[in-house]
Amino acid sequence: MSLAYANGKVNKFDPMEYRSIIRIIGLLVALFSATMLPPAVIAVIYKDGGGTAFMQAFVMSLLLGLILWYPNRRAKADLRTREGFLVVVLFWTVLGTIGALPFVMSELPDLSLTDAIFESFSALTTTGATVITGLETLPKAILFYRHLLQWLGGMGIIVLAVAVLPMLGIGGMQLYRCEIPGPVKDSKMTPRIAETAKALWYIYLTMTVVCALAYYLAGMNLFDAVGHAFSTIAIGGFSSYDASMGHFNSPAINMICVVFLLMSAMNFALHFAAFSKRGIRLATYWRDAEVRMFLLIQLVLVMLVFLVLLGQKLYQSPEVALDKALFQAVSMSTTAGFTTEGFATWPLFLPNLLIFASFIGGCAGSTGGGIKVVRMTLLSLQGMREIKRLIHPRAMFSIRLNNLPVSDRVIDAVWGFFAAYALLFVVIMVTLLATGLDDVTAFSATAASLNNLGPGLGDVASHYGDINDVAKWVLVMGMLFGRLEIFTLLVLFTPTFWKS
Amino acid sequence: MSLAYANGKVNKFDPMEYRSIIRIIGLLVALFSATMLPPAVIAVIYKDGGGTAFMQAFVMSLLLGLILWYPNRRAKADLRTREGFLVVVLFWTVLGTIGALPFVMSELPDLSLTDAIFESFSALTTTGATVITGLETLPKAILFYRHLLQWLGGMGIIVLAVAVLPMLGIGGMQLYRCEIPGPVKDSKMTPRIAETAKALWYIYLTMTVVCALAYYLAGMNLFDAVGHAFSTIAIGGFSSYDASMGHFNSPAINMICVVFLLMSAMNFALHFAAFSKRGIRLATYWRDAEVRMFLLIQLVLVMLVFLVLLGQKLYQSPEVALDKALFQAVSMSTTAGFTTEGFATWPLFLPNLLIFASFIGGCAGSTGGGIKVVRMTLLSLQGMREIKRLIHPRAMFSIRLNNLPVSDRVIDAVWGFFAAYALLFVVIMVTLLATGLDDVTAFSATAASLNNLGPGLGDVASHYGDINDVAKWVLVMGMLFGRLEIFTLLVLFTPTFWKS
Ligand SMILES: [K+]
Ligand SMILES: [K+]
Question: Does A8 contact chain B (CB < 8 Å)?
């Protein structure tokens, strides 16, 4: 490969840019310290003794933030694309690390540093894999904090996916450049991200409130309703119970979960378009090719699971089978990872099928993980184009999405994303196998981390507490790679990024 | 997607074309009937009683061939691209079915129709998965026939990969259009394929003779030397012993196998270029980017396996460990699938690593299976280009292979190939799981069939005799898809192919 033509200045990072980045991270850390306060309040309300760790974590993270921010408070270089990668990666790694503080300092649960980091990154990336068992015995403060971390992570993901990644051009997401709320032609990142974030924040908050209300009305107590609304809208999948959603054993709650998971797995820019004027314009959704494909995939999966469950006569009535099929198919394929009783005992091909479905995942610009429906759609269209090209070698076919032609650049980027995803999958799985995990565990854990799904099969079917520490760190990397759409993190490992 | 511009006539198949295709298939079947004669002769020499089935099969296939050929003997329409797909697919399916005749009619082994078809397709696609155990007890005629089928299949593959697929433009193989021996600008397929086949035939035969001689000198008897040379050059992996190459327990034989596997896994068009003038010009190989990448991959794999074996102290000396590592890494990653004693007991991540390596497979235009090294190279280059594009969004980067720019059309086709491969993998694996196979068996059997590798793990580690019939048929489809580079077979399933 050669650099045939380069337009635009290509500079090394200068000190001012580094200081500006440190200033932003310092501000974020200081803001993030406020996350420790609600759990502290919860501790006071429930008198569960879990408050100290959070007050300590609050002070420590606030101080750290100020220490990073203060010396660089006047360093306000405009962020360009390249610095964007660094800020995004630092955002997740620094907050993930600081988020582990309460887990480290709590007496219950008594987690090692590795486990604390795993739990924090799993929450913040909305993966929802847990190393903790006996959730029912934990202080409410810790339970609330886990939900809250997922919720904040989900918010971060939406801003990342709707506002930042399209500008960075990750994995074909430049496709969405024109759909972002805010001034379109502006190349400066900061004001635009702030404006977009504000708009998305209202939608995210509204959906969470409505979801919590629905859970409450369906029979959850207030604490569970808010907590589970947090991890539903974030498609995180954390629960306050070892039995996950199965604890409630309520078709109504399952159905609410399904509805809000489906909404949260759609592009939030679409919610923005549908919600912004008076009322909700449902046509906005149906006009979107990705949403149509997404719903079609859900329908096919639910039907398939339902028919297999019926055929195997696993449940006493078709209604129960449909409830289980609908809930589990949507929960897994949107990458939420909530479970109900019995999933682990389903015939082996169903869990595997749903794990494969999590590779497709949610729509772009949602809180869902996986490769994303729009990319899968583009890959299918390209696959069909290749077949047509084979039959009619001299004809020209263009790929169109939502009646607009898709540029070759976008298609290239989607392919690159897909290949990197596959390669990373193999590397992580082989590494896990080398640490001693068995085949089923390694395969499902790799999928569960890379797709930000959460639960796996084999030794990680219910929790990740029993696997070795090296495997845990590898999975943390997997979650990060998945959440940052591979390339945001991958570029930092290339010499080109730092040198030229 | 829309047909923006179509150049060239697009017709339905006319009766003359169908008759012409039937004529060709009839000729092929009649020619193929001769394959039954050498085993019949072997049966006479060894007095093993296996000859009757082969004489019956000879008569039946010769008659069938003549019945297909005679009424259409004057139907000589020129084959165009589209008919090419049909002929290639019919070639493998018809010969695979007829190749099963001796297995069906033999008393030893006593195979069901499904098993006979499985064994025949596995041989002809050079997969080398077997449903038979107790190979040592079989008539020599059957053993020789299995080797011979692989050898003919290997020859078919080379002609397919060097002469036919580049013209059909399958999976980016139009890249090799200009490298094919024979008249380049000619769009008529038949004369060109005949000419290319003749040139390749000499190389293939020469390599086989030299390989057999080397095996013989290293201690095999004449029967084993010829048989194993057949399945080595075809990268088929069939042996006459249940213990495969491990039966001979000879580092010299292992080394001969490795050398000829490496040669057979290189592009035969390259052998043609290197061999055609006086002597062998080794520089021809080294100048080829695919060969360099291929050898690099082999080196890395062998070193990795060697170091793990050393670290685990599985063998008494480093020499033995190196012998085992070299043989097994090359055997698996070239998709031969020969094994030696102990492979199945290696630490779990090594068998999996080598199964993943079989996805890369051999070079294009070789007898090796898998996705092929050149495609993996192009995918890597494209991946690196995507990273560079992210860092320098306004720059233009071109992908070059062997100092020539690679067209976007080729890159597109390679991506399409990769995605179809991945999709097919998931479909086959989930189907196998649904038939009741466990995770490890389903995963490895899918890889082993799609990559034309042969041996798997779990229930198919030593043979495929114990799995259910539906799984066997699915795997036969997998072998065919893999051998026909997915798209050759896939196009036949599209309405576009038949209608427009
Ligand atoms: K999740
Ligand atoms: K093979």
Answer: yes
Q: Do residues A86 and A27 touch, judged by C-beta distance below 8 A?
A: no
Share the mean pLDDT of chain B: 88
For residue B444, give the chain A residue with the closest CA.
A439
- State residue A181's pLDDT score: 45
How far apart, in whole angstroms, are the C-alpha atoms of residue B208 and residue B152?
A: 12
Whether the pLDDT of residue B175 is over 70: the answer is yes
Cis, peptide link before residue A102, omega less than 30° from 0 = no
Q: How many CB atoms lie within 10 A of CB B341?
A: 13
Beta bridge partners of A326: none
User: pLDDT tens digits, residue range B388-443?
Assistant: 888 887 888 888 888 888 888 888 888 888 888 999 999 999 999 999 999 899 99
pLDDT digits (tens, 9 = 90+) for A412-464: 888 888 888 999 999 999 999 999 999 899 999 999 999 999 999 989 988 99
Measured CA to CA, the distance from residue A318 to residue A336 in angstroms comes to 24
Residue type, B42: I
Tell whether A6 is within 8 A of chain B (Cβ): yes
Which of A239-243, A321-325, B153-157, B195-199 is predicted with the least confidence, judged by mean pLDDT? Answer: B195-199
- Listed residue (B135, B98, B141, B137) closest to B120, CA to CA: B98
Closest ligand to Cα B237? 2
Is residue B253 within 8 Å of B215, Cβ to Cβ?
Answer: yes
Task: Note whether A412 contacts B411, CB cutoff 8 Å.
Answer: yes
DSSP letters for B421-468: HHHHHHHHHHHHHHTT--HHHHHHHHHHHHTT----SGGGSS-STTS-
B89 to chain A, any CB pair closer than 8 A? The answer is no
Tell me which residue of B27, B133, B147 sits closest to B99, measured CA to CA.
Answer: B147
Considering only CA atoms, which of B456, B291, B303, B453 is closest in space to residue B363? B291
Cβ within 8 Å of residue B463, ≥6 positions away: B129, B130, B131, B132, B133, B242
**Beta strand A396-398 pairing with B2-5:** antiparallel
Q: Tokens representing A75?
A: 């360093």
Task: Give the pLDDT of residue B190.
Answer: 59
Q: Which residue has the tokens 């294009």?
A: B364
ipTM, interface predicted TM-score of the complex:
0.85
A186 has pLDDT over 50: no
Instruction: Name the band, by pLDDT with cuts 50, 70 and 90, for residue A5.
Output: very low
Residues of A with Cβ-Cβ distance to B10 under 8 angstroms: 392
Coil, helix or strand for B405? strand
Query: pLDDT class for A178, splitting at 50, 70, 90?
Result: low
**Long-range Cβ pairs for the range A438-444 (8 Å, 24+):** A438/B348, A439/B348, A439/B352, A439/B439, A439/B440, A439/B443, A439/B457, A440/B439, A440/B440, A441/A467, A443/B439, A443/B443, A444/A351, A444/A355
B221 strand-pairing partners: none
Question: Among partner residues B4, B8, B423, which is closest to A398 by beta-carbon distance?
Answer: B4
Say if the Cβ atoms of A439 and B434 lie within 8 Å: no
- B4 closest CB neighbour out of A8, A81, A397: A397
- B413 vs B478 pLDDT, higher one: B478
Place of tokens 């993270």: A61
Average pLDDT over residues B159-174: 80
Mean pLDDT value across residues A212-239: 96
> Residue B205 has what pLDDT?
95
Phi-psi region of A6 (alpha: psi -120 to 50; beta: other; left: phi over 0): beta
Mean predicted confidence (pLDDT) in B234-257: 95
Helix B469-483, helix B113-124: angle, nearest 10: 20
Q: Is B430 on the interface with A (CB under 8 A)?
A: yes
